[in-house]
């Protein structure tokens, strides 16, 4: 890309590979009207720093309208419009020139006007990327596509499925990526990477063109080296938004976070291919500093990235300390259906694993997003990642399994009470928990609610919520107490029970225990409304354990949607 920017557009022909990149990374809003790709393939252009899958999915929602408006024919090519010229670019312009292309017009050049326009957009995109700007466009339509058909369509569009004579399908069994596309990092960064890590970009390209090695064989050292690069130099990569549909996770993360699949490729330019295997079943979250590496995980992952059994972590999210989840929602919203599709395809719980400072692994099953338990509710990326970030960082593994769903229900109960019950009737609402890690989780969740409400001028009702852990509630008094605990952790904290009971007895309005029992023995049924159930508990003065996942499927239970600044 940097090389392309240095060219004189009036004297040198446009590099075909860079032209393809300009189509993938130029923001949609900045392209002239009528920029489309024909014949049911690429119908529009991907936003900057967005994975290729986004572009191919985006076109599906508008394919009929786009074709009618543009008057597209049946030939494969690009119809490119500028204010001064209109040029049909053949399929040779779509593919990197590292192999034979079945086109009689492979040497066809583009007009100066078109070339000038592309170079101008490349410069603008490069400037925004270096400034760390984030692209905020999201899909409004949910597209029903199988993840394998998505990968197959992407491979076909790029001529990598064998149809164009460039690459054979078997060469992509582990989702190799043409090395020429690594120029998205920019020429300066590439020179640095080549010098420091001695990455054999050119050697791999020559071996592929000469047929001496398959893509997988030629790119293996490149991929291994890039894995280390991405880990140690994550801030060099302008990854801002990752988006996919139907069987693929939808999530959003800041520019200093890096997605890698089991091969160690950057998610921003490999995700369209990695889904040709099977969808992931877990995310590994590491909260160490951005320039550190958890060697136990990465060394094992890098050792044999092409082995079919090398599924240590299909995706890995490395997040720096000080990661503020509410910022993510300024980029995009995450909706429940995409998450549920992941669970449905994976046929197991959506598991999130974290590492604390001692590299101790703790497991936390996020059962609140199981397809069997969730009906008509929505969840935001802030809520999911906020719970994950805190719940997995200092919790003993045997006690962390239910902490997320417990926290969600407890916080929702507190917020519902604060919103629905006037302050004159219910002054203080105490969120009480047994151990410090749960307190951090509850506090952060409530704090995010308060922050978003403050932005929208709604501050009063949530200020009544107080969060305390087991060693901090002596002398406290509250009108209502919500005790967030997990059944398994409860066994280890029996010494708290008498003190908790004393505190709960002081509550004039009532109390609620939030736990993980599947059945509510006292009621003999699941509650339809958490608030009415809480009031019933208060009236009967009884401590009842309820199931978080069961409650979340109830309509009245609200789940945070920070992007809209209110609670659902």
UniProtKB/TrEMBL annotation:
<dbReference type="InterPro" id="IPR041679">
    <property type="entry name" value="DNA2/NAM7-like_C"/>
</dbReference>
<dbReference type="Pfam" id="PF13087">
    <property type="entry name" value="AAA_12"/>
</dbReference>
<protein>
    <recommendedName>
        <fullName>DNA2/NAM7 helicase-like C-terminal domain-containing protein</fullName>
    </recommendedName>
</protein>
<feature type="domain" description="DNA2/NAM7 helicase-like C-terminal">
    <location>
        <begin position="375"/>
        <end position="516"/>
    </location>
</feature>
<dbReference type="InterPro" id="IPR027417">
    <property type="entry name" value="P-loop_NTPase"/>
</dbReference>
């Amino acid at each position: 890309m940097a090389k392309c920017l240095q060219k004189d557009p009036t004297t040198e022909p446009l590099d075909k590979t860079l032209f393809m990149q300009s189509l993938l990374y130029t923001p949609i809003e900045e392209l002239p009207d009528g920029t489309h790709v024909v014949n049911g393939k690429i119908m529009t252009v991907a936003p900057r720093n967005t994975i290729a899958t986004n572009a191919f999915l985006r076109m599906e929602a508008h394919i009929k309208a786009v074709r009618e408006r543009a008057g597209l024919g049946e030939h494969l090519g690009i119809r490119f419009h500028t204010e001064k010229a209109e040029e049909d670019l053949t399929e040779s312009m779509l593919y990197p020139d590292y192999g034979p292309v079945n086109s009689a017009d492979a040497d066809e050049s583009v007009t100066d006007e078109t070339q000038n326009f592309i170079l101008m957009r490349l410069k603008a995109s490069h400037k925004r990327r270096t400034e760390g700007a984030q692209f905020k466009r999201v899909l409004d339509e949910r597209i029903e596509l199988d993840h394998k058909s998505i990968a197959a369509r992407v491979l076909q569009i790029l001529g990598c499925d064998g149809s164009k004579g460039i690459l054979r399908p078997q060469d992509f069994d582990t989702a190799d990526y043409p090395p020429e596309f690594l120029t998205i990092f920019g020429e300066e960064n590439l020179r640095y990477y080549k010098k420091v890590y001695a990455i054999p970009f050119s050697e791999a390209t020559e071996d592929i063109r000469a047929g001496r090695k398959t893509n997988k064989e030629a790119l293996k050292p490149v991929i291994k080296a890039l894995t280390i690069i991405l880990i140690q130099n994550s801030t060099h990569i302008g990854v801002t938004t990752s988006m996919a549909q139907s069987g693929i996770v939808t999530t959003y993360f800041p520019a200093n976070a890096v997605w890698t699949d089991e091969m160690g490729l950057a998610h921003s330019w490999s995700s369209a291919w990695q889904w040709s295997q099977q969808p992931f079943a877990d995310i590994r979250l590491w909260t160490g500093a951005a320039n550190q590496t958890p060697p136990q995980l990465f060394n094992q992952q890098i050792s044999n990235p092409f082995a079919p059994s090398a599924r240590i972590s299909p995706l890995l999210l490395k997040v720096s300390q000080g990661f503020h989840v509410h910022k993510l929602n300024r980029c995009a919203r995450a909706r429940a259906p995409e998450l549920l599709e992941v669970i449905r395809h994976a046929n197991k719980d959506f598991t999130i694993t974290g590492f604390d400072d001692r590299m101790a692994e703790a497991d936390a099953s996020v059962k609140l997003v199981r397809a069997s338990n969730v009906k008509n509710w929505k969840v935001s990326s802030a809520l999911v990642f906020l719970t994950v970030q805190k719940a997995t960082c200092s919790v003993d593994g045997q006690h962390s399994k239910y902490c997320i769903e417990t926290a969600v229900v407890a916080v929702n109960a507190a917020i519902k009470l604060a919103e629905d019950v006037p302050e004159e009737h219910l002054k203080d609402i105490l969120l009480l928990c047994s151990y410090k890690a749960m307190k951090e989780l509850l506090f952060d969740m409530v704090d995010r609610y308060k922050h978003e409400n403050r932005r929208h001028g709604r501050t009063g009702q949530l200020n009544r919520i107080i969060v305390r852990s087991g060693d901090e509630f002596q002398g406290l008094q509250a009108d209502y107490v919500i005790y967030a605990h997990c059944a398994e952790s409860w066994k280890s904290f029996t010494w708290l029970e008498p003190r908790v009971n004393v505190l709960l007895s002081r509550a004039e309005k009532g109390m609620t225990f939030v736990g993980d029992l599947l059945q509510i023995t006292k009621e003999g049924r699941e509650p339809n409304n958490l608030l009415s159930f809480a009031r019933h508990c208060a009236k009967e003065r009884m401590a009842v354990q309820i199931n978080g996942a069961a409650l979340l499927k109830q309509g009245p239970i609200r789940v945070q949607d920070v992007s809209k600044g209110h609670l659902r």
